[in-house]
Design brief:
This protein is α+β, with helices and mostly antiparallel strands and 207 residues long. It folds into two domains: 54 residues, Orthogonal Bundle (Arc Repressor Mutant, subunit A), CATH 1.10.10; 143 residues, Beta Polymerase, domain 2 (2-Layer Sandwich), CATH 3.30.460. The termini are far apart. The strands form three sheets. A three-stranded antiparallel beta sheet has the order 1-3-2. A three-stranded mixed beta sheet has the order 4-5-6. The chain is elongated.
């Protein structure tokens, strides 16, 4: 391969990485950058391989949200949910070590090595309900809205604990990111309003 072509591919690869953050080999190829060029760049220390076929700049800032973007790319039918959605909405300071992502009950469990993910199985109705999209690292990431996220935390409280569900509810009300009415609607749809109502009433009175 002529040196000028290698240089052009290298420039394209670096531009793609700066724009998208984590980038897969298939995305490089689509942009006209060969696997051979990426291999040379890896050996030269210009890129770092995070997992098979997944690369990042060596000095890239560690952005926890990028793992959400990558999970969304790898599980295109999934929706960011539960603790991961809570963190994305700014309702907790703790980003969970695994990306929580909801898929349909009839969907195949995705085989993903990076980023580490946790699967939550949702009915088709609940999977389609109250989905928003946020732009992260050039990717449109589907995530459940705040009120639905809180209701789902109560639904999954055995797996994630009561404390996270209650704290999510408290912060959603305190930051005014969800109204009591919206929370009630989502809790009723999720079948957890009987459990959640006393907390909503107590926190609303305290406010």
């Amino acid at each position: 391969m002529p040196g000028s072509e290698i240089s052009t591919q290298r420039t394209q690869a670096l531009a793609l990485l700066m724009r998208r953050g984590m980038t897969r080999l298939a995305e490089f190829r689509a942009a006209g950058v060969t696997a051979t060029t990426i291999g040379r760049m890896e050996r030269a220390g210009e890129v770092v391989r995070l997992a098979r076929g997944l690369y990042q700049l060596p000095d890239a800032a560690l952005d926890a949200q990028q793992s959400l973007a990558e999970a969304a790319r790898l599980v295109p039918k999934g929706v960011i949910c539960l603790a991961s959605a809570l963190a994305l909405h700014g309702l907790t300071d703790q980003m969970p070590p695994r990306v929580w992502i909801a898929i349909g009950r009839k969907d195949w469990r995705p085989r993903v090595t990076y980023p580490p993910i946790r699967i939550a199985w949702f009915s088709d109705e609940l999977l389609r309900r109250s989905v928003e999209r946020k732009k992260i690292a050039g990717t449109s990431v589907p995530v459940f809205a705040v009120a639905k996220t809180v209701a789902d935390l109560f639904r999954y409280r055995r797996a994630l604990g009561d404390a996270l569900a209650v704290e999510g509810l408290r912060q959603a009300l305190r930051q005014r990111k969800a109204t009591p009415a919206a929370l009630a609607r989502e809790a009723e749809a999720a079948g957890v309003w009987a459990t959640m109502e006393p907390y909503v009433m107590a926190l609303t009175v305290d406010a």
